[in-house]
Amino acid sequence: MSLAPPTCLRFRPLGIDTSAEYVVYMHAGCHICRAEGFAAQARLAVSANQRTLIATLNIVRGDLIGIDEASLSISAQRALGIRAGTILHFSHMPVLASASHVRAKVFGQTLDRAALQAIVDDAVSGRLSDLHLAAFVTACAGERLDLDETTSLTEAMVAVGERLSWDRHPVVDKHCVGGLPGNRTTPIVVAIVTACGLLMPKTSSRAITSPAGTADTMEVLAPVDLDITAIRRVVNQTGGCIVWGGGMQLSPADDVLIRIERPLDLDSDGQLVASILSKKLAAGSERVLIDLPVGPTAKVRDAITAQRLSSRLITVGARLGLQVQVRLTDGRQPVGRGIGPGLEARDLLQVLRCDAQAPQDLAERALDLAGQVLELGDAATPGTGLSLARHTLTSGRAWQQFQAICDAQGGLRAVPQAPLRHLVLASQAGKVSTIDNRVLARIAKLAGAPQSKAAGVDLLVKLAEPVEQQQPLYAIHAEAPGELQYALCYALAHPNVIQLEN
Amino acid sequence: MSLAPPTCLRFRPLGIDTSAEYVVYMHAGCHICRAEGFAAQARLAVSANQRTLIATLNIVRGDLIGIDEASLSISAQRALGIRAGTILHFSHMPVLASASHVRAKVFGQTLDRAALQAIVDDAVSGRLSDLHLAAFVTACAGERLDLDETTSLTEAMVAVGERLSWDRHPVVDKHCVGGLPGNRTTPIVVAIVTACGLLMPKTSSRAITSPAGTADTMEVLAPVDLDITAIRRVVNQTGGCIVWGGGMQLSPADDVLIRIERPLDLDSDGQLVASILSKKLAAGSERVLIDLPVGPTAKVRDAITAQRLSSRLITVGARLGLQVQVRLTDGRQPVGRGIGPGLEARDLLQVLRCDAQAPQDLAERALDLAGQVLELGDAATPGTGLSLARHTLTSGRAWQQFQAICDAQGGLRAVPQAPLRHLVLASQAGKVSTIDNRVLARIAKLAGAPQSKAAGVDLLVKLAEPVEQQQPLYAIHAEAPGELQYALCYALAHPNVIQLEN
């Protein structure tokens, strides 16, 4: 028994950009809408060029398109690879097994590998709606994926993407779980570790819920959107790279899940592990150091949670052939001074150049992590990694190596400066007792980070520092007046972001 | 500190219907997009006519609109009450406390009345995105709302809507928890109970995840989309009504949550209780009988769940001044024969007219419930309700009364018949051992119910009935060939929907 013959309309581009969402536009009077009883927001299958996708219907009332025409959002037009006049075929959306799996998970059932693969496949192809993806992300939030599910999800995510392999071994890597503004150690670690001869092809992500991801910050300094051929050239030339992983389809499922998690500001243990490990596996990494900052306003708030996540990362990694080592770090305050791509880039350049005013906390963290990676990759014997890392930095070899990597990626760029700045002053004297990472991150985001590269927060005090009344606590940097004022509104509503005690 | 002065664009209608979602269209080159760095899918505040709403941004690339223009989806245009040329003001979306509350709930925190009110307010005003609503619905799924939260959510939902009051007392009501296809007792119960002099102004909902809600079925027989003035007239005239509650803004929050729950096929104990009780409280009901079908493929699957839900309905009702009585009923198979608005309307007319071929199970259930309501409303002494109900039906008084109500609502209509039918036959002989309510409901929905009024399933056998090989088990009714074939595909893939044993 086959489906009814699909019905057809001519494609007319309208040029509407809906980002990743697939939208189809049909005239209210068209025969398909009328015959099939399609209403606005219905989801239906659109085919052309031997490709099919599922799109959300918007109904056009008026003369924007004819009754024998249909339009598609730019994303859907690209996915089908069509031009004006192409004949589009429409049919009812298939019943999705993945939607039932999502529902089962919402109600607390455990999903097996096949069910998770079905969800991941349909997420990547756009068959599952954003509502279903939001339900899935929510149903997995916190600790609602067990170890088997996490392993299966990781495998499923690796299976839908590209997978790199490298000629030299071991391939080392480093990843930060995040949640700590300004913690931009990666470019420094890559420079040190590859200067010492290890292979470290680093693929990073853009910000999920933070004011900057490593890829956002690195993009200030050099191109990061390289294809696989270009990355291989950079890595062959220098032993390392610091590029954006999203352009390579290494874990397209992760990109889809992140698109949903970002506006919801949600993370889950299981998805975090699957997200990290799927990207590491896809990137061909073999030994990975994970920086896991712990603090009351970091992503991981206490030692118990950190231990649980740590053990999950190590166990799932081991099951999938990845040697994982976790470093718990201090997450009580931002690292360095800058929060936002441009300001963080400034900080890490100061460290690499061994400037006198370089933020020492950022330098020490990067050295600690680099030392661990050197030992993990057998480039230093146990206990000697840190001193090798320090020597590599102070000798200028790390800075040379960083410039070589930037050149290979397309050339070192100047750090942009924000045209608009506003200093937030201490209303009283005292000693800094707490700094709220989340509120500072929110202010940086409202100021425009990471889209506005120069925007963000420049933190001018650290925990335990004495502060005079009217002394600047932090500066808000912005590129647009609306954003500056908006960030400032929020900052003024949250005077306790930096607390002082007498 | 005020926000930056809002920036303005001229409104140009495009006539795009996105259903309830608010969408704003701006040209990629317009000064607001460029100055504020807005990207597609960003959410922003749009104001005109002293009204403000939050809309999702779609970017227009091309000449559909000018760079000094913006367009809005029809829903947003209506909500702002504007016409071509009106000046629209744009600003960044405010930080929503309700989004933080949703996140807290996702991570298992308990929400208080104020937090739930914030969520409900922002859901109704469209400030919370559909993704956030999906996360909220998912976070409440199953039993994840406690008794206090359920009470608070119910109160919050009543607070954002209209609330009716009536001159006569007690005001009785009846509600079915649903999940049982064809269980269309309400119109019969209203006819019997109001014929006996009780006041029963019944507001019903449309289908959530089922092939028909009472409002969908009743709409086949009479207009149900009445305003409050019209309803008062009908109730004053007849003592009852059977109308759609959604048109009266009795529980607009429920309508929003249902719009999200429907595509996700999700329900939760707490939201179910809040949905039912908020509508009953808003409708001015004082004593409510709740029909709770229990069966392996009904919404409530076992006695333990039924008891839990029942006790929650009674307790939350009592806290809010509503006397609730729950009747657990047999949910192992559909009630009557028809599944879908038109087919169910046919069944209930047969019962009211005391036709010889009327489905006896539907008649007996309606009589049982009507008897209970008569006793609950003090129109019958304990133990005498059923016989009073039966007498009212068999004497023809219920049918007279039903016609009076339909006339008052706008006139009794003829039941439409589907042009396309397909009989599904038994592949072997045997006795009917199980009937899957969910699969039958799905087939009826794929056939077009409830949008296509005449579409659905006509069930031709009941549990324990003997069946010959090739005997028809059920008929699929459809209005469009695509829908018939689509339903049939699914039916053929699920031959066990009706199981036979030797």
Give your account of this protein's structure.
Helix content of chain A is 41%, strand content 20%. Chain A is α/β, with parallel strands linked by helices and 502 residues long. Chain A has 4 domains: 7-92, Barwin-like endoglucanases, CATH 2.40.40; 96-162 and 246-279, Transferase, Pyrimidine Nucleoside Phosphorylase, Chain A, domain 3, CATH 1.20.970; 172-244 and 283-409, Nucleoside phosphorylase/phosphoribosyltransferase catalytic domain (Pyrimidine Nucleoside Phosphorylase, Chain A, domain 2), CATH 3.40.1030; 420-501, Pyrimidine nucleoside phosphorylase-like, C-terminal domain (Aldehyde Oxidoreductase, domain 3). In chain A, strands 1-6-3-5-4-7 form a 6-stranded mixed β-barrel. In chain A, strands 13-16-18-14 form a 4-stranded antiparallel β-sheet. In chain A, strands 8-11-12 form a 3-stranded parallel β-sheet, sandwiched between helices. In chain A, strand 11 (287-294), helix 12 and strand 12 form a beta-alpha-beta unit. The longest helix of chain A is centred in the middle third of the chain and has 17 residues, at 303-319. The model of chain A is unreliable at 1-6 (pLDDT under 50). Chains A and B meet through strand 2, strand 5, helix 3, helix 5 and helix 10 of A and strand 2, strand 5, helix 3, helix 5 and helix 10 of B.
